[in-house]
Design brief:
This protein has 169 residues and is mainly α. It has helices at residues 3-12, 19-44, 55-79, 83-98, 104-109, 124-168, and strands at 111-114, 117-120. It has one domain (18-167). The protein contains 6 helices and 2 strands.
């Protein structure tokens, strides 16, 4: 890329939003919503007895709501090239991956009985699917944050160079 093209691209960032980072954060929310639907559909249809009627499920519901709110707030922050929101996106992205070991993994290890038939609360197929949703959500958060940090750094350096040029000229 030519120096003039790079200068123009970075200078243009002063007037445009970071839609790539914001879009990835929105995608993280979407993956979380699909995870949310998949897990709670099992509970609503009474397919797994009363396994999900415990404190862990209540905490999961509250966390899902908080995650969606936080990810949306972060999407607005990274859209405006605010560096600190990227760090928070990394944090919630890591938590999304850790969540695999909290509810889905424990559900694959638990059994429930209907009559004489004992079955796993969550089968391997559903576990794989919900794990993929949480991994994708976490990855989108982290990638959004990395893109945001790179672009914030570029824009910050560019603005400092412009200020230095103005003070010298």
């Amino acid at each position: 890329m030519e120096a003039d093209e790079k200068f123009t691209r970075i200078d243009r960032m002063r007037y445009t939003k970071n839609t790539l980072s914001a879009g990835l954060a929105y995608l993280a929310i979407l993956f979380d919503v699909v995870y949310f639907i998949n897990i709670y559909a099992s509970d609503i249809n009474y397919e797994v007895g009363t396994y999900y009627y415990q404190m862990r499920m209540g905490i999961s519901i509250v966390y899902n709501l908080l995650f969606m709110l936080a990810a949306f707030l972060c999407s607005e922050g990274v859209k405006s090239y605010k560096r600190n929101y990227s760090f928070f996106l990394i944090f919630i992205g890591i938590i999304q991956v850790v969540r695999i070991f909290l509810l889905p993994l424990k559900a694959t290890q638990a059994d429930y009985a209907v009559g004489d038939v004992v079955t796993k609360v969550m089968g391997k197929g559903q576990f794989t699917l919900v794990s993929a949703y949480l991994l994708a959500s976490g990855a989108c958060c982290v990638i959004s944050a990395v893109v945001g940090l790179i672009r914030c750094g570029e824009l910050s350096s560019h603005e400092k160079a412009l200020l230095k040029e103005q003070s010298n000229g």
